[in-house]
Amino acid sequence: MSRRTRREALEFYISVSPWIIGFIIFTAYPIGFSLFLSFHEWNLLESWQYVGLSNYITMFTEDGLFRQSLKVTAIYTGASVPLGICVALILAALLNRPSIRGLSVFRTIFYLPSVTSGVAVAILWMWIFNPDFGIINYFLKLLGINGPPWLASEEWVLPALIIMSLWGIGGSMIIFLAGLQGVPQELYESAELDGATGWHKFRYITIPLITPVILFNLITGVIGSFQTFTQAYIMTNGGPNNASLFYILNLYNQSFRNMRMGYGCALAWVLFLVILICSLVLLWTSNKWVYYEGGILK
Amino acid sequence: MKLTESRHINSILIDILVYIILGLGSFFMLLPLLWMVSSSLKDMGSIFIFPPKWIPNPIQWYNYIAIWQEAPFLGYIENTAIITGICILGDVLSASIVAFGFARLKAPGSNMLFILVLSTMMIPYYVTIIPRYIMFKSWGWIDTFLPLTVPAFFGYPFFIFLLRQFFMTIPRELDDAARIDGCGSFGIYWKVIMPLSRTALLTVGIFSFMENWNDFMAPLIFLNSPEKYTIALGLNFFRGFHAAHWHYLMAASTVALLPCLALFFFAQRYFIQGIVTTGLKG
Prior knowledge:
The complex is a heterodimer. Chain A has 13 helices and 2 strands; from the N terminus they run αββαααααααααααα. By secondary structure, chain A is mainly alpha-helical. Chain A has a single domain, classed as MetI-like fold (Orthogonal Bundle). In chain A, strand 1 (40-41) and strand 2 (49-50) form a beta hairpin. Chain B is mainly alpha-helical. Chain B is built from 15 helices and no strands.
């Protein structure tokens, strides 16, 4: 018996060994090495020099680009993630109405943009936001509004990127839809007997029951949004006047354009901590507002 | 009677409102793609017309020929296909064997290890990109496909999680029956679990395709020579020469997005299944 368990344990470690090896080589070691480098100055050519905390001190005291990139990323995340979640949830709730036909067609349409990404999509949206010939300003003109220059304007570049982010909410919408379909029908029926209206049912049954899904979308959304890079690199290159200098773009510029590897690693570590803190805060506050089945309104 | 009737009319009105909102939403989702295709079929003269025309006149199919002559897109596509193909293979094989261990084999520390796998999903890719670059540089891997493909063979946490969830739903009686027939654990993995998990494996393959086909930052950092460019890098390069040639840019973007769109149309349910598994059980 114990020989069998030992054998099974051995087989377990053999089967998960690809992940363990990969974790050490491609994750644990790079993270450790990156922490080490963040206390050094290194341009890849000469040997590295220990500079203590100077990279971190520079970042928080002198580096205006760091501050700007953190601000840009925080504003973008703070606007696009909650907005995306609200729109996705509303669309999912509307699709989930029993009387609505064509669910699968709408679902396909809403998810379609999410299968596209990267450089091609960035180029497409540059054309959409083109101040003179793009369709956004065309539609605004139909409404009698003179559209802003979008990507060329310091004020409008982030709103433009936030609008663009709404194009990719299909994934969270599908997750919400699946969550909504999992809400037991009896709850709605008994609420109806008590005379609850549509809005009441949504507010007091649907929303509480899908708070775990909201939490999931919130955390993955924040993690993803902090890593925005391709749009910024392709569409604006951080401009105009650094108004769309996203965190990762700044990190890329510092490390691969200015060849400041040590500083880049320090930036990466700060980002890592920021994301970690955001996720932990969301998780900690979650027992205040996330409802888990079994525990009745904790 | 009166009450139910007014309620009925009310709900019809709400339905109409809902259809209007869904219609506007669909409009917002579809329009950029239609606009892309429409622009890609215009000539230089009609692309810069305001207000824009939706149906190009004349229809300039030539753009789709011109782009291949203006830039080596065939080469870009070939490179992307090679990288993506290898990554799919690596992702499916490595994630499935690791997931099998987590789903089926008992060992001390296995739960702790699984929690570790899940928590690495939270680590942003970019945190490790500089040390990876330095590491690959010292191995002489820069400007080869290796930094883009080799990591796929070491189990991507998200795929491990997705497959483990699926493997758990396969009845254990099948394992026992195979054991009686003389299968070892890895025989069960290969002959029982894998054939029964075709849908989940397809989902992983599709996600891996999407991830690698569109990836931009990793190729940007790890590849230098233009003949090794992927489609994402090639598009960026092409844009440098044709900044105002929106009809070419839109044709090239359409070509780049076509495989993803086609895949979605043929394999929609795997996409949706994959998203739902990760979202609800995460």
